[in-house]
TrEMBL record:
This is Eukaryotic translation initiation factor 5B. It comes from Helianthus annuus. Its main location: cytoplasm. GO terms for cellular component: cytoplasm. It is an enzyme of class 3 (hydrolase). GO terms for molecular function: GTP binding; GTPase activity; metal ion binding; translation initiation factor activity. Belongs to the TRAFAC class translation factor GTPase superfamily. Classic translation factor GTPase family. IF-2 subfamily. It comes from the Eukaryota. Keywords: Cytoplasm, GTP-binding, Hydrolase, Initiation factor, Metal-binding, Nucleotide-binding, Protein biosynthesis. It is found in: Cytoplasm. Residues 14-230 form the Tr-type G domain. The chain holds residues 466 to 1071 of 1071 of the full protein. Its EC number is 3.6.5.3.
Length: 606
């Protein structure tokens, strides 16, 4: 049989590597994808390129054709290359199958004019974390001043045709970028000079607009993949399949878009996928791919397949798929398999995520597009610097029911009546309900931005509370009246004082413990060297004005109700201490807190 032949030759059948495009915003990821797919040229899906679900398939023949000018004798063992259609690192993060990354190889796009940018570094970290091979596309070379366009030419050839100035500018920028990579602990080298593939990553200069360098990039991708990951790319019958997206399609009901990484799927296969409310056990009703002829691509025009072999992007229809969770693995139940066992393992990822919900029941509500992105977000919220508790989670668009769930916090902790929506839409009804009942929704497609928004909101709330509390907050101080410094004996009392302990602030109510704790009014102004100030610290000598807040206080007089030797002290209470603790914990020194405790005893506060 065929299999034996292969074994005799010592060659294994390889599947197509799966490739993902990553990089900072505006570096040209989308344009580069267009360029690879040739959607920017007249002939459309030319040379056997097929549009799949969520991915584009470039057959090896097409790559051979496009790289023939390189005379590299492109020895390609893989059937082709499968490029994921949604560029960006979020999709890379989400696409997992059995714990490891779905992508075999990535193109990391860097703008030659900008060098490494924040999301380039984020992408790099992800690639490192997942141990994913990549090549760097140093894009927008056509923007070098004086660049002569050589449409779709190999970059080696195009570079030779450039002026000395262009070549020098290129060299200069390349060197800088190699240094930037080195600062991130990554060795890179221009592809043509790179002899240590695997240790040193290759940089291919490209233009996604005029197509220079695309031949080298394609060849390198495939060669690198088939050279460094034979094991991983060896075709196997064991199903490896990831759910990319869950979509309702008119006439088909809820469908799941999957990438089949390995194995063969058949119509009628019994499958198990992770569901938000438990494992989903169903059968494949149909296996669909888009119609290759654009004109025929009217709504619902899909090709039905009896079976499909990896690697492929496929749409699957079947019953009960409504609650399927994007970003999780799809399992096929074989004749000898124990369904219950598969149901267990399918929910592993989900349990892992569930375990991150705060046990106290207090926290924000978190909504993300896939399980992978939800995990990433939860992980981030857990880090010590961020430390935001989570009380509930959801996947997919934010609906009214999610707002209802988040609103439970309105009673418990208002600031947690918040939905952090990561890379998902909010339905208009949900938005309306949230506005009505006071649930906050923050939306972002970068995790950090969500955090920034939430933090700004919390800080704002804190400020507001502080302003509300300011009236009732009483800072601790002990004042000594200075000799010959009584400027006005009765309301408003004006005195020169020595701050012997604590901190003196405007608004502080003052009383005299030695005289039955009589209240004489609040500090209405403070002057230091004839200049008005808001506060005075221990050791300072200042002039103060004390204004009575009521008729009784306004009666109090120096010389009749109190004397030179009496200490003036902040009149604190249980409530004022609580407010200080809640809002000003960090603003008081240890010594000042000790004074609070001392005054607490003095006033016999429990
Ligand atoms: P993405 O955000 O990374 O997907 O970037 P896009 O593909 O949307 O490109 C961002 C902008 O850069 C667009 O205006 C593109 O036309 C432009 N652009 C992308 N690649 C190139 C290139 O190679 N050369 C030049 N001159 N412009 C490019």
């Amino acid at each position: 049989g065929k299999k034996e032949e292969e074994e005799e030759e010592g060659e294994k059948t390889l599947r197509s590597p799966i490739c993902c495009i990553m990089g900072h915003v505006d570096t040209g990821k989308t344009k580069l994808l267009d360029c690879i797919r040739r959607t920017n040229v007249q002939e459309g899906e030319a040379g056997g390129i097929t549009q799949q679900i969520g991915a584009t398939y470039i057959p090896a023949d097409n790559i051979r054709e496009r790289t023939k000018e390189l005379k590299a004798d492109a020895k390609l063992n893989v059937p082709g290359l499968l490029v994921i259609d949604t560029p960006g690192h979020e999709s890379f993060k989400n696409l997992r199958s059995r714990g490891s990354g779905l992508c075999d190889i990535a193109i990391l796009v860097v703008d030659i004019m900008h060098g490494l940018e924040p999301q380039t570094i984020e992408s790099l970290n992800l690639l490192r974390m997942r141990n994913t091979e990549f090549i760097v596309a140093l894009n927008k070379v056509d923007r070098l001043y004086g660049w002569k366009v050589c449409r779709n030419a190999p970059i080696g050839k195009a570079m030779k045709l450039q002026s000395r100035d262009v070549q020098l500018e290129f060299e200069h920028r390349l060197t800088q970028i190699i240094t930037q990579f080195k600062e991130q602990g990554i060795n890179t080298e221009l592809y043509s000079k790179n002899k240590e593939r695997g240790e040193t990553y290759s940089i291919v200069p490209t233009s996604a607009i005029s197509g220079e360098g695309i031949p080298e990039m394609l060849l390198l991708l495939v060669q690198w993949a088939q050279k460094t990951m034979v094991e991983k790319l060896t075709y196997s019958n064991e199903i490896q399949c990831t759910v990319l997206e869950v979509k309702v399609i008119e006439g088909l009901g809820t469908t799941i878009d999957v990438v089949l990484v390995n194995g063969v799927l058949h119509e009628g296969d019994e499958i198990v996928v992770c569901g938000f409310q438990g494992p989903i056990h169903t059968t494949i009703r149909s296996l669909l791919t888009p119609h290759p002829m654009k004109e025929l691509r009217v709504k619902g025009a899909y090709i039905h397949h009896k079976e499909i072999k990896a690697a492929q992007g496929i749409k699957i229809t079947g019953q009960n798929l409504e609650h399927a969770v994007a970003g999780t693995a799809l399992y096929v139940v074989g004749p000898d398999d124990d369904v219950e066992e598969i149901k267990e393992s399918v929910m592993d990822d989900m349990r892992n995520v569930m375990s991150r919900i705060d046990k106290s029941g207090e926290g924000v509500y978190v909504q993300a597009s896939t399980l992978g992105s939800l995990e990433a977000l939860l992980e981030f919220l857990k880090t010590p610097v961020v430390s935001i508790p989570v009380s509930g989670i959801g996947i997919g668009p934010v609906h009214k029911k999610d707002v209802m769930k988040a609103s439970v916090m309105l009673e418990k902790k208002k600031e947690y009546a918040t939905i952090l929506a990561f890379d998902v839409k909010v339905t208009p009804e949900a938005r309306e309900l949230a506005d009505d009942i006071g649930v906050k929704i923050f939306i972002a497609d970068i995790i950090y931005h969500l955090f920034d928004q939430f933090k700004a909101y919390i800080d704002n709330l804190k400020e507001e509370k502080k302003r509300e509390a300011a009236e009732d907050a009483v800072f601790p101080c002990v004042l000594q009246i200075m000799p010959n410094c009584v400027f006005n004996k009765k309301d408003p009392i004006i005195l020169g004082v020595d701050v012997i302990e604590g901190i003196l602030k405007i608004g502080t109510p003052i009383c005299i413990p030695q005289r039955d704790f009589i209240d004489i009014g609040r500090i209405s102004s403070i002057e230091n060297n004839h200049k008005p100030v808001d506060y005075a610290k221990k050791g300072q000598k200042v002039a103060i004005k004390i204004t009575g807040s009521n008729a009784e206080e306004q009666q109090k007089m120096f010389g009749r109700h109190f004397e030179m030797e009496d200490e003036l002290v902040s009149h604190i209470s249980r409530n004022s201490i609580d407010i200080l603790k809640a809002n000003y914990r960090d603003e008081l020194t240890n010594e000042e807190w000790k004074l609070v405790v001392k005054l607490k005893h003095l006033f016999k506060i429990q």
